[in-house]
Amino acid sequence: MEKLIACCGLNCVTCDARTATVTNDDALRAKTAEAWSVQYQAPDITPEMINCTGCREPGVKFGHCEVCEIRNCVKSKGFQTCADCDQLERCGIVGNVLQFVPEALENLKSLN
Known about the structure:
By secondary structure, the chain is mainly α.
């Protein structure tokens, strides 16, 4: 399976926002906006906001990317991903992602 690993270790290839963007699928944008509005308790997410090529790829980003603490930390340290950091497995910033999506840690470890 193709992988496009985000700063935090999530695989952007499996993200509905990225899929909707690269395939220009408005129905998937609407479905994703509705799901994320519930999942993240953010009723202000609209289908028009569902556009992202991946946090480390050129192109449009989902609005959260600009304020993502993980992505901003990686960028501030000059890293590509959290895999470049020696604090990876004890980091409080990326810890929640790694706790709830164990595959993210595996993805990051596979980069080294």
